[in-house]
Amino acid sequence: MVGLSANAPLSLVFFGVSSVTAWVVPAYPSIACLIFLKLRALLQAEGDSVPPDDAPVDQSVLIDLCQRLRKYRDLDWSPSPPSRRRSLLRR
Fold this sequence. Notes:
The protein is mainly alpha-helical. Helices cover about 55% and strands about 0% of the residues. It is globular and about 45 Å long.
């Protein structure tokens, strides 16, 4: 299970959006609302049209906002290389 915190980098929200929203929206509507508000604020800062802040939040809305934000943010979807520290711990 993926854990989200208030200090998690925004890129975490974009990783596996559909899989994250599939369990966040029904199980944690307040977290889904906070994600919605953050995505909405980022799109608004870019000058894009945004839904009202009291709009209903569901999986399709979050996915749409993430896809729209990709136009403005250069996100690297490639897997990061394994860290040297992690490989040392496995020995």
